[in-house]
Input
Amino acid sequence: MDFASKIRLIKDFPRPGINFRDITTLLQDGPAFGQVVNALADLCREMKPDIIACPEARGFVLGAPLAYVLGKGLVLMRKPGKLPGKTIACQYQLEYGTDALEVHEGAIRPGQRVLLVDDILATGGTMAAAAKLIQQCGGQVAGIAFLLELEGLKGIEKLGNHQVVTLIKCEA
Ligand SMILES: O=P(O)(O)OC[C@H]1O[C@H](OP(=O)(O)OP(=O)(O)O)[C@H](O)[C@@H]1O
Ligand SMILES: Nc1ncnc2[nH]cnc12
Output
């Protein structure tokens, strides 16, 4: 299936000059959504993760079904102030602003192999922060999975030596 054609391009959102890749059009297509999750699971199985972690909000949409298919638990990496327990946080830059991610203390056990999942790799700020946060928690990044990489933004360069798998690649 041509997954790329299912993702809508909206120019100048949320700011002039940004080519926004809207995954809602893919998610609305049941067979495409299912095939994307299964294809990511096939790419990630050999990473042998103990647990899946994903950043709010679009990361949850792929992280949850991927964790289900792989039979693993899920750790939510949330935007500030959303998690009720004691948290550990990491700040980062976005293509269009700054933000932070938090996880519950104790959500990742020392030495656990963590598979990180998100919808889009743009500048890499979100995922670099997520990987750092997992390591701060004592976890080991088993690998990183994306639905889409915007290659022109060179986000991959922020992800160091981590193993990265991506289903679709396109220019920024
Ligand atoms: O590689 P980067 O430049 O960091 O950009 C990628 C991130 O941007 C988007 O999330 P966003 O922060 O817009 O939040 P959302 O998931 O709540 O829409 C996307 O879901 C990724 O998490
Ligand atoms: N160009 C883009 N389209 C969709 N989500 C994004 N997150 C960061 N950059 C993005």
